[in-house]
Amino acid sequence: MSSIKTNAAQLLVSMLDELGHLTDEPGRLTRTFLSPAMQRANRLVGDCMRAAGLQVRVDSVGNLIGRLESPDPKAKTLLLGSHLDTVRDAGRFDGPLGVLLPIVALADLKVRGVELPFHVEVLGFSEEEGVRFASAYLGSEGYTGRLKPATLALRDAAGISVGEALEEFNGGKFSLPKPAHQRGDLLGYVEVHIEQGPVLEAKKLAVGVVSAIAGQSRFKLTWTGKAGHAGTTPMALRRDALAGAAEFIAGVEAIARRMPGLVATVGALTVSPGAANVISGAVVHTLDVRHADDRRRRSALMAIGRLATQIAGRRKLTRAWQRTQENGAVACSPSLTARLEQSVKVVQGKSLSLVSGAGHDGVVMSTLTPVAMLFVRCRDGLSHHPDEYASPKDLAVALAVMTDFLRGLATDYTDEHG
Ligand SMILES: [Zn+2]
Q1: How far is the CA of 349 from the centre of ligand 1 (A)?
Q2: Which end of the chain has less Cβ packing within 10 Å, N or C?
Q3: What are the DSSP E strand ranges found in 214-281?
Q4: pLDDT tens digits, one per residue of 392-412
Q5: Which residues surround the ion ligand 1 when the cut-off is CB under 5 Å?
Q6: Taking a C-beta distance cutoff of 8 angstroms, is the pair 30, 86 a contact?
Q7: CATH classification for the domain delimited by 3-213+329-417, as one of 3.10.20.30, 3.40.630.10, 1.20.1640.10, 3.60.9.10
Q8: How does pLDDT run across 246-273, given as a tens digit for each residue?
């Protein structure tokens, strides 16, 4: 690693630290949609963008956009970015890494006198985590022109709607934004993000390339049996909702273990009436099922559905399903991913292909342009936590990959477009 790269990585670390102090809640890091801390974050990152030679603006949904123009006005635009909002009591890396790293990479190329033949836009999305309005991706939905009237009606804990918050942010007037670009004008969207999982750490690799973002289905399930006295109701006469749910949950785990790449989770459960001496009459629980291949996710859901029917029939329980979320899988762009893999091999010696189990801005951006993602190892796979950590050494690797990627893409682009 050259000394320039090490200096660039140190600059990135100090920028992540500085941004990590901009919070809406004293003592912990929390930045939510359009909050005062988000506006301070936009000013700070905007200054970093300007220092790297980018033209800076903030759009009507609070997205920070830094643009580096190529000498050819007709050139296409490459989008790089991630989100600047955070969960409650967050770490410093989830989101900001994917905004700050491209800025440092572009500054590094500028210092070396490298001029890119395409325009670049670095995007700091105003909302991805869904904290304030319990609806995720508001920033990228605004950028891609996919914000829906129904979303504007959602209200935060203080009773303020998305529409009202956006009107105030825009000085009284807000209308649903159009897509920021035409599809044909774009080269794609590339996002750098911490892995939020333990795979890179287990493989002892600093970075890996994402092949797909898993599709996910979420449900609320209700099992209903009959409450009764725990001492006087014989076992054979019981309709125990919790025993049925427990059998179901263990069965879901067994199905997920049998199907490679499938993850299925029951993460929250409520038992009624919920007393030590009462047989459970009703259980409500969540179910979250994810796979990179939508057909496999759907076939797993069929197997899970058959299991529920069979348990309910045998135990004389009724069950109700309510689908609460459904996102199809997003396959990453083969060409951008191959280019990214090549850069990872140059810098790291070997590349690793990973599926992203978590959703990212790339899910929404894929509706506008092909997407690719680079994952960076994070300690213990930990994220959404103040102890979230990626080492300066790994950040230097990710930076080197990004600069190599931009140079490689520049060569490809010049070959193709003259
Ligand atoms: Zn994130």
Answers
A1: 27
A2: C
A3: 215-224, 228-229, 263-265, 269-272, 278-279
A4: 999 999 999 999 999 999 999
A5: 94-95
A6: yes
A7: 3.40.630.10
A8: 999 999 999 999 999 999 999 999 999 9
